[in-house]
Specification:
Strand content of chain B: 5-15%
Helix content of chain A: 25-40%
CATH superfamily of one domain in chain A: von Willebrand factor, type A domain
Largest sheet of chain A: 8 strands, mixed
Number of helices of chain B: 20
Largest sheet of chain B: 5 strands, mixed
Shape of chain A: elongated
Number of strands of chain B: 10
Oligomer: heterodimer
Distance between the termini of chain A: 77 Å
Structural class of chain B: alpha+beta
CATH topology of one domain in chain A: Rossmann fold
CATH architecture of one domain in chain A: 3-Layer(aba) Sandwich
Strand order of the largest sheet of chain A: 8-7-6-9-10-13-12-11
């Protein structure tokens, strides 16, 4: 027969393909800062897949240099394949997971998540040797009984030296009572005539197994994020874009951390107002800047809706820092810090030079540095940041450009902060 | 595939064998296995029906699978192994008529396997596949014993230089000492002869020349390798200070042997695939004519056949061009369009209507299948006419000024350039010629490779990364000497940094 239908064989492809995907993930991880600042990820409606072009992972080998592409700038010679770019689809969840590896948020979770114990009733959990008859675990008990059947059978065979079938007949006749079966065998008075062996459970009291009942408790956690943004005249498109991207990822992170996350949005110029998500990112307003107004509104929100005993509270303000009344802002922030897990401040300054050159500091930054900061970092290689102590869970970061978003998130969400 | 289809397929199989015999093909009984698509996809990605685990195979598998599942392209339509008896896969979920096409195609390959003189020099594919199956078991055991990462790193490194083998695919590597003795004896004899020339036409060589050549002989006694070795993995497996344990050597040599068994295929790829396509077209035509397949099935067949023979602008479709070549040759030789008289005729009208009724077409194409290689075919048969007819040009993508879309435009259509390009490709397959020049460089047991320039520079990024892989295999500084801007340049990697340095 020349045509046969083949038996399925073990498949290797999927396993090795997974190893390749792991390698791709590493490649994606390297490009995270770039991917994170891609606006299309944020603007897309809830569909959770992101398309990311990455280089095909290749085994290096000696090969001819690629001709630089032609005058058109994207030329591609017919006999020479261009750089192999693969578009891979990644879930936002997966992206965040990749970032989490970097951020080590799980530790933050252990330390900072306050939990609410909710009793859900009773549930079956494991087995035990004693219990009420109704909770008898029939399956496990039978299993034990079958084990005993075999051990009795072997026991009879060993003691009497008779074959398996003879011993089975004796055991069958006495319905599993070892002593009686042994007696029958020794006297040679077995009357059972079974032709076939059908193992049956022999259950003694120590073979009984019962279901164990336990109270079922679930630990729930909830958090509220108060996202505040300056929409005064000085906040142009770039500034708002930076604020919006940073907030998007912060919210996504915390959504993974807590079962329930509420996000409240506040925009402010001289006065603050609570708005919905859509308006938050779109509002174009003008006028002066009073950051205190936003914090005041946040404080009243917390007071009325989010008791700190039940809620983890995170608040972020993104502004360019040209605050008219920094002292008042500091006062309101202090109040909020007494209840919140953390208060963050992202200062958006795309036009400011790197520190080291003569740059001026915003009024708010100067004030915060003076009042809260126990440590100020001005490392020219990373972002300028301010860190509050245990009394003031405060973090301030300066964001100057797109690529700063991931480093800023890392500072806001560093795992071992405020441990002692 | 249901039982009725299976019955029909068996019936058609018998008929195809009869047709193939009538047409003069060498027919062997083929064992067709009906398998899930995944088996075929794996066979394509893993080189053999079963092979060791590696992420690069997984990558290729997934690429094929994605193409297959999401775009309907890359249908795993053909896979045949030159075993005894030959074995081929049919995909259970493929349309019936596609499986018939594959079946007919496979008989074309089977004839090629038996008929090609070139293929007869191959190692038995069955043996090589069996070795791959054994290797899969051994490598899994190595992973268990020495760690997954350790094994993977070694495979990665070995694969990065695996294509660098002797330019003659059937060359057998000699033991180093055997080679040394042979070269030494040869050089010695030459020197002796030159020293004692007694002829009025030649002078005995000078004293300086003698000392120079004796010195060279002395060097030859210790040099490793005594002459350039092109089989990099073979040399490294036997001489590296890093590859000491038997399993490491096994990994290197297994990969080397697999590639060695596969490499010769490339030289006849176009002729082989073209041949199978040529025959499936003819066999299918007869099956339709005989009513063994329906008109409805003809429609489906047309779709798949045109997919196989589709023109691609960014690569060379061996099925399409191979098929066209056989048909072109058959027609010309049938009409007697060959020989000095035809070649020298400059009258286009006469050439076009040239028909001596020679009917030598079949004979000619069978001759091609028996003793030609792809490169020969390009040289002898890729005429200007053929190249223009087939649109075998170099294409590039550019923006259409009107629509703003990317479109393919012809970059070069000069038949001479196209021929040269193809000849080049069929000679080296874009694999740079690299050899071991010195395995004891600077007397420090460093590895020095040589690169014979064939018209291009080594890609710098890939070159450096490959040197890193070589370092992993060698354990000491590795260098490659190449030519850039007319000068020798040596690029080395010492485990920490990359250094270019000019050399003499």
């Amino acid at each position: 027969m020349a045509i046969i239908v083949s038996e399925p064989t073990a498949s290797k492809g999927p396993k090795d393909a997974k190893r390749h995907r792991d390698k791709q993930r590493e490649a994606i991880k390297k490009r995270l800062p770039e991917i994170l600042s891609d606006e299309s990820i944020i603007t897309r409606k809830k569909g959770k897949l992101v398309r990311i072009p990455i280089k095909a992972i290749d085994i290096p080998h000696f090969r001819p240099e690629r001709k630089s592409s032609g005058s058109s700038g994207r030329g591609r010679a017919g006999n020479e394949p261009g750089e192999d770019m693969l578009e891979t689809e990644v879930d936002i969840e997966e992206l965040i997971e990749l970032m989490l590896e970097d951020l080590g948020l799980p530790r933050l979770e252990e330390k900072n998540v306050r939990t609410l114990a909710v009793e859900l009733g009773w549930e079956l959990k494991g087995t035990q040797k004693t219990g009420p008859w109704v909770l008898l675990d029939k399956r496990r008990t039978t299993n034990k009984g079958i084990e005993r059947f075999w051990s009795y059978l072997r026991g009879l065979m060993a003691t009497t030296g008779k074959d398996e079938m003879a011993c089975y007949r004796a055991l069958h006749e006495t319905q599993g009572i070892f002593k009686d079966a042994l007696e029958l065998l020794e006297n040679g008075t077995v009357s059972d005539q079974s032709q076939e062996m059908t193992p049956f459970p022999v259950v003694e009291s120590q073979d009984l197994r019962y279901h164990k009942l336990e109270k079922s408790v679930e630990f729930q956690s909830q958090a509220v994020i108060i996202a505040m943004m300056d929409v005064s005249g000085s906040m142009d498109d770039i500034k708002k874009y930076l604020a919006r991207s940073s907030l998007f990822w912060l919210v996504e992170f915390l959504r993974r951390l807590y079962k329930r996350v509420e996000v409240r949005f506040i925009t402010h110029h001289v006065t603050a107002s609570a708005v919905d998500e859509d308006a938050f990112f779109r509002t174009v307003e003008s006028g002066g800047t009073m950051c205190a107004s936003a914090f005041a509104l946040a404080n009243s929100m917390v007071e009325s809706d989010y008791p700190p005993a039940e809620w983890n509270i995170y608040a972020w303000l993104f502004s360019d820092g040209d605050d008219f009344e920094p002292e008042a802002t500091v006062q309101e922030m202090k109040k909020l810090m007494s209840k919140a897990n953390m208060v963050g401040y992202g200062e958006i300054r795309p036009d400011e030079h790197r520190s080291g050159e003569a740059d001026y500091e915003s009024l708010l930054w100067t004030e915060l540095k003076e009042k809260f900061s126990i440590a100020a970092y001005e490392d020219p290689k990373s972002l300028s940041s301010l860190e509050g102590g245990e009394r003031f869970p405060f973090l301030g970061v300066k964001i100057r450009k797109r690529e700063d978003i991931l480093p800023a998130l890392k500072i806001f969400l560093k795992k071992d902060r405020w441990q002692k | 595939m249901n039982s009725e289809e299976l019955r029909r397929l068996k019936e058609i199989d018998l008929r195809v064998q009869e047709i193939a015999k009538e047409e003069g093909l060498l027919v062997r009984e083929v064992l067709f296995e009906i398998v899930p698509a995944q088996r075929v996809l794996e066979g394509q990605a893993y080189w053999f029906p079963t092979n060791f685990s590696h992420w690069s195979f997984g990558r290729d598998y997934e690429k094929q699978r994605t193409l297959y599942e999401h775009t309907g392209q890359g249908i795993p339509y053909e896979q045949v192994w030159d075993f005894d008896p030959p074995r081929a896969f049919l995909v259970e979920t493929n349309p019936f008529v596609l499986n018939v096409m594959v079946l007919a195609h496979v008989y074309g390959h089977v004839d090629f396997f038996s008929g090609s003189k070139y293929r007869q020099r191959f190692r038995s594919v069955m043996d090589v596949a069996e070795e791959a199956r054994q290797a899969a078991k051994r490598f899994a055991e190595y992973e268990e014993r020495f760690g997954k990462e350790e094994v993977e790193n070694l495979i990665d490194s070995a694969m990065s230089i695996m294509w660098h083998q002797h330019p003659d695919p059937f060359h057998e590597e000699e033991e180093e000492e055997v080679a040394r003795e042979r070269i030494f004896a040869l050089e010695r004899a030459k020197l002796e002869r030159d020293k004692s020339v007694q002829s009025e036409f030649a002078q005995p060589i000078s004293k300086e020349e003698i000392t120079k050549r004796e010195k060279r002989l002395a060097m030859l006694a210790v040099a490793t390798p005594p002459e350039p070795v092109y089989d990099l993995l073979y040399y490294i497996a036997n001489h590296s200070g890093r590859i000491r344990r038997p399993w490491q050597k096994d990994v290197l040599l297994t990969i080397r042997n697999q590639v060695r068994a596969l490499a010769p295929n490339r030289r006849i790829k176009m002729l082989n695939e073209g041949w199978a396509t040529y025959w499936h077209v003819r066999i299918m035509r007869r099956l339709f004519a005989e009513g063994l397949l329906s008109a409805k099935e003809h429609e489906i067949y047309n779709i798949y056949h045109s997919g196989v023979a589709a023109q691609a602008h960014n690569n060379f479709n061996v099925y399409r061009t191979g098929l066209a070549l056989y048909e072109y040759v058959e027609e010309r030789w049938n009409k007697g369009q060959f020989g000095p008289e035809y070649e020298q005729s400059e009258d286009p009208y006469k050439r076009l209507h040239w028909d001596t009724g020679a009917m030598k077409g079949r004979e000619k194409i069978f001759e091609m299948r028996t003793s030609w290689s792809d490169r020969m075919a390009v040289e002898a048969l890729f005429t200007d006419d053929f190249i223009h007819e087939q649109g075998l040009y170099s294409y590039t993508q550019d923006e259409d000024p009107k629509t703003g879309k990317l479109v393919w435009v012809v970059e070069d259509d000069d038949p001479k350039k196209i021929r040269d390009m193809l000849k080049d490709t069929f000679a080296t397959y874009q694999i740079p010629i690299i050899f071991v020049q010195n395995g004891n460089a600077r007397s420090q047991h460093e590895l020095l490779l040589g690169h014979t320039p064939t018209g291009f520079k080594l890609d710098p990024e890939y070159r450096n990364k490959t040197l890193e892989k070589l370092y992993h295999l060698w354990g000491k500084t590795v260098s490659v000497r190449t030519v850039e801007k007319g000068k020798y340049v040596i690029f080395s990697y010492d485990g920490k940094e990359h250094k270019p340095s000019n050399s003499k």
